[in-house]
Amino acid sequence: MRAFAYHQPNEISEAVKLLTSVEDCKVLGGGMTLIPTLKQRLAAPAAVVDLAKLPALKGISDDGVTVTIGAMTPHAVVAASPIVQARIPALAHLASEIGDPAVRNRGTLGGSVANNDPAADYPAAVLGLGATIITSAREIAADRFFVGLFETALEPGEIITAIRFPVPVAAGYAKFKAPASRYALVGVFVARFADGVRVAVTGAGAGVFRVAAMEQALSQSFEPTSIASIKIDAAGLTSDIHAEADYRAHLVTVMAKRAVTAASR
């Protein structure tokens, strides 16, 4: 690890000012991605801005229509939250499946979403629920937020402050996990709303994506059998030491069926 300047602001405005005025500066949320990359010297920023002392970025609230979760809320808190368990149980289940206890107690919702790892779980929930990403500058719809591999619509100096999740009629999440890391080889989040269904896939490609054919079929009949015959094109999906693209394509349908079953319980 190389030396860097360390800042721990007490206000969001102070954090934004640091990020826009200090050259080559990185944001530190839970540190589950940044700290390992610093240790391996895969990243060598001149400065790090730690958001740990910003209480405004933590907490969970319910307004009856949406559930809003602060960006610095740890995965374990989301998983154990009575609000999330009651209103969007699939989101609580997803959070409980992330990594191991150490990761769940340190890693944060905002950090995961901002990092946009192609195998992360939260992007599937954010896109599948059609959530809104609230930042220090604006609000961004999930469909416009995830741009590409580790890329998002965030501008330099822009910080995720919270994410607002619409409460669905029903939702489910299922993933086929890598045994060691518990990252998703394929994870599928399915959410049914009064006006239709959203299906979001993580782990299979360069980033989270929706499956229109499954959404249309499930909007007609919200049953696993409705999507059993839908095949996913393996072109553009990931092949690596964990799984070939063809296998991941197969898993998308399998996990989607399981997610629908979970949502129907």
Describe this structure in words.
- The structure is a single chain.
- By secondary structure, the protein is an alpha+beta fold.
- Among the domains are: 1-53, Uridine Diphospho-n-acetylenolpyruvylglucosamine Reductase, domain 2 (2-Layer Sandwich), CATH 3.30.43; 170-263, Enolase-like, domain 1 (2-Layer Sandwich), CATH 3.30.390.50.
- The chain is 33% helix and 25% strand.
- It contains eleven helices and 14 strands.
- It has helices at 12-21, 34-39, 75-80, 82-87, 89-96, 101-106, 109-115, 122-128, 142-145, 212-220, 245-263, and strands at residues 5-7, 25-28, 47-50, 60-62, 66-70, 132-135, 139-141, 146-148, 151-152, 160-166, 170-177, 184-193, 196-202, 209-210.
- Strands 4-5-10-6-7 form a five-stranded antiparallel sheet. Strands 11-12-13-14 form a four-stranded antiparallel sheet, with helices on both faces. Strands 1-3-2 form a three-stranded parallel sheet, covered by helices on one side.
- The radius of gyration is 18 Å and the shape is globular.
- The mean pLDDT is 96.
Query: CATH superfamily assignment of the domain at 170-263?
Result: CO dehydrogenase flavoprotein, C-terminal domain
Oligomeric state as shown: single chain
Order of helices and strands: EHEHEEEHHHHHHEEHEEEEEEEHH
What's the count of strands? 14
Main sheet: strands, sense, barrel: 5 strands, antiparallel
- Provide the residue-averaged pLDDT: 96
CATH architecture of the domain at 170-263: 2-Layer Sandwich
Give the overall silhouette: globular
The fold-level CATH name of the domain at 170-263 is Enolase-like, domain 1
Strand content: 15-25%
Kindly provide the name of the CATH class of the domain at 170-263. Answer: Alpha Beta
Can you count the helices? Answer: 11
Nearest-angstrom radius of gyration? 18 Å
Please identify the structural class as seen in this structure.
alpha+beta
Trace the largest sheet across and list its strands: 4-5-10-6-7
- Low-pLDDT stretches: none
State the end-to-end CA separation. 48 Å
- The amount of helix comes to 25-40%
Organism: Bradyrhizobium denitrificans
Protein name: Xanthine dehydrogenase family protein subunit M
Keywords: FAD, Flavoprotein, Oxidoreductase
InterPro entries: CO_DH_flav_C, CO_DH_flav_C_dom_sf, Diverse_Substr_Oxidored, FAD-bd_PCMH, FAD-bd_PCMH-like_sf, FAD-bd_PCMH_sub1, FAD-bd_PCMH_sub2, Mopterin_DH_FAD-bd
